[in-house]
TrEMBL record:
<comment type="function">
    <text>Catalyzes the third of the four reactions of the long-chain fatty acids elongation cycle. This endoplasmic reticulum-bound enzymatic process, allows the addition of two carbons to the chain of long- and very long-chain fatty acids/VLCFAs per cycle. This enzyme catalyzes the dehydration of the 3-hydroxyacyl-CoA intermediate into trans-2,3-enoyl-CoA, within each cycle of fatty acid elongation. Thereby, it participates to the production of VLCFAs of different chain lengths that are involved in multiple biological processes as precursors of membrane lipids and lipid mediators.</text>
</comment>
<dbReference type="GO" id="GO:0042761">
    <property type="term" value="P:very long-chain fatty acid biosynthetic process"/>
</dbReference>
<keyword id="KW-0472">Membrane</keyword>
<dbReference type="InterPro" id="IPR007482">
    <property type="entry name" value="Tyr_Pase-like_PTPLA"/>
</dbReference>
<keyword id="KW-0812">Transmembrane</keyword>
<keyword id="KW-0256">Endoplasmic reticulum</keyword>
<dbReference type="GO" id="GO:0030497">
    <property type="term" value="P:fatty acid elongation"/>
</dbReference>
<dbReference type="Pfam" id="PF04387">
    <property type="entry name" value="PTPLA"/>
</dbReference>
<dbReference type="GO" id="GO:0005789">
    <property type="term" value="C:endoplasmic reticulum membrane"/>
</dbReference>
<keyword id="KW-0443">Lipid metabolism</keyword>
<comment type="similarity">
    <text>Belongs to the very long-chain fatty acids dehydratase HACD family.</text>
</comment>
<dbReference type="Pfam" id="PF13837">
    <property type="entry name" value="Myb_DNA-bind_4"/>
</dbReference>
<dbReference type="GO" id="GO:0102158">
    <property type="term" value="F:very-long-chain (3R)-3-hydroxyacyl-CoA dehydratase activity"/>
</dbReference>
<feature type="region of interest" description="Disordered">
    <location>
        <begin position="103"/>
        <end position="125"/>
    </location>
</feature>
<keyword id="KW-0275">Fatty acid biosynthesis</keyword>
<feature type="transmembrane region" description="Helical">
    <location>
        <begin position="438"/>
        <end position="461"/>
    </location>
</feature>
<feature type="transmembrane region" description="Helical">
    <location>
        <begin position="305"/>
        <end position="327"/>
    </location>
</feature>
Length: 487
């Protein structure tokens, strides 16, 4: 089977260099087709073998040279006398120059040294010039030019945007100054109208306008009417003016009474709050008894109180249902966070880890929870029957100052004590690889919950201070109690 006549770029360049250097075009022109022409290709073959390219015979060289010439002339014909093909420059240098009168004598062959490979002739131009390489070179040059142009355009665009920003800033400044000047002029005009005795009307603000919830808002609209004063009577204008003054003082605070729950819902809420009071009272008694009456017992605090804490703390999940079903007017988001944070401590930390059960923060948390919940649930239960004593209102909005930081400290200590066990055993964690291509670290989850206390606790703490100021700052505990509904 005949071997395919496949030429590499280096072999083709070597062929063209040999034809050019040894002026074989003169031999092609001086001999006729046939045996003598074949001898010329044998000479080219020998020259290529001397230079280290011995893979091509005379027949292959003949066909390759024929194909190169055909491609060159066809390209010139199609492109109006301009050749666009591989090795166009080299072929033009060979085929379009006049043949040299004298054949160039070949360089003497290098002598081979025994034990070393035959020397290979080195070409000064080792770069293979192909259409692809020429296109790549042109593209690289165009890319550099485009990069410089792009950088210039980008700088111009930034300068233009900065000028627009400065212009907009000046326009906004002018508008703001104009508004301030108009406001000052209007204020001075109103004051002048009041001083000269023009008519004043006090109107009621519309019922649908925006108001601040829970705070009485008294809005006065002043309408002035020009009144003529008789000449020479400026000193006694108060008695001579013929106008009527209409003053209506209207309180626009929303005094909408909260919807009274149905008897069934009200009975359920009273029963729920009363049960929570009894449960947390019993829990507080057991906590005190553990450190006094039962002191020295072998049981841990969690063994002593665990079941009660789980029962009544998880029962608080009903408060989320109450808030979302709107049978109580509590904020669903705040209620959810408060309840789930404690449920997380009980079920996700203390119950789940042996280190959480012996945390020094557990008694602190239970103590703060017990006192807080006794006061809170008692307040809710008595508020449903409108029998909240003033002392309970004071405790409701005062004891949190100490109990909130105490409870949060205890909860964080429980988290911290539990994370050592989770880190060691990788409890409730999912690692790769797995079927669902999913990973979860319960240790990182605990740290994330601990970090959430940083932004959320101050907000809840300051919210309670705002409620305290609203309820106790007015001095009317009865009215404050009517505003706060049961959870």
């Amino acid at each position: 089977m005949a071997r395919r006549n496949v030429w590499s770029g280096e072999e083709t360049m070597e062929l063209l260099e040999v034809i050019k250097e040894h002026n074989f075009m003169q031999l092609f022109a001086s001999v006729s087709r046939g045996q003598k022409d074949y001898q010329v290709y044998r000479m080219i073959e020998e020259e290529m073998q001397k230079n280290g390219f011995g893979g091509k015979d005379a027949g292959q060289i003949y066909h390759k040279w024929k194909n190169l010439k055909r491609a060159f002339y066809q390209s010139k014909k199609l492109n109006k006398g301009r050749a666009i093909c591989e090795f166009a420059e080299e072929l033009a240098d060979i085929l379009e120059r006049p043949c040299a009168m004298k054949r160039r004598e070949p360089d003497p062959p290098a002598e081979a040294v025994e034990g070393e490979p035959a020397p290979v002739k080195k070409r000064s131009n080792t770069q293979i010039k192909t259409i692809r390489s020429q296109i790549v070179t042109k593209l690289a040059k165009a890319q550099n030019d485009n990069c410089e142009e792009f950088g210039k355009k980008w700088n111009d665009l930034n300068d233009y945007e900065f000028k627009l920003y400065k212009r907009k800033e000046k326009e906004q400044t002018v508008i703001m100054n104009r508004m301030l000047e108009d406001s000052r002029t209007t204020l001075m005009s109103r004051c002048r109208d009041i001083l000269v005795g023009r008519e004043i009307r006090v109107n009621e603000i519309g019922e649908g306008e925006e108001e601040e919830e829970d705070d009485p808002l008294h809005v006065i609209e002043i309408e002035t009417t020009d009144v003529e004063v008789a000449p020479g009577e400026e000193g006694t204008r108060r008695s001579c003016l013929t106008y009527s003054t209409y003053v209506r003082y209207v309180s626009t605070s929303k005094t909408m009474a909260a919807k009274e729950p149905s008897p069934i819902v009200k009975s359920y809420l009273i029963l729920y709050n009363a049960a929570q009071v009894v449960g947390w009272c019993y829990m507080l008694y057991q906590l005190i008894a553990y450190y006094t009456i039962d002191k020295g017992t072998e049981k841990t605090l969690w063994d002593h109180l665990g079941f009660i804490v789980i029962l009544f703390q998880n029962a608080a999940l009903l408060e989320i249902v109450h808030a979302f079903t709107r049978i109580v007017p509590s904020n669903p988001v705040i209620t959810t966070f408060q309840v789930l944070s404690r449920v997380m401590v009980v079920c996700g930390v203390v119950m789940a880890t042996p280190t959480g059960k012996v945390s020094p923060g557990l008694p602190l948390a239970i103590l703060a929870w017990s006192v807080t919940e006794i006061i809170r649930y008692a307040y809710y239960a008595l508020n449903l029957i409108n029998a909240v004593p003033q002392l309970l209102i004071f405790l409701r909005y005062t004891t949190f100052i100490v109990l909130y930081p105490t409870g949060v400290t205890g909860e964080l200590l429980c988290f911290y004590w539990a994370q050592s066990h989770v880190a060691k055993t990788k409890q409730w964690s999912i690692e790769m690889p797995n079927t669902y291509n999913f990973t979860f670290s319960y240790l990182y989850f605990l740290w994330a919950v601990m970090l959430l206390y940083i932004p959320l606790f101050p907000q809840l703490y300051m919210h309670m201070f705002a409620q305290r100021k609203k309820i106790l700052g007015t001095g009317s505990s009865g009215s404050g109690a009517s505003k706060q509904k049961n959870n």
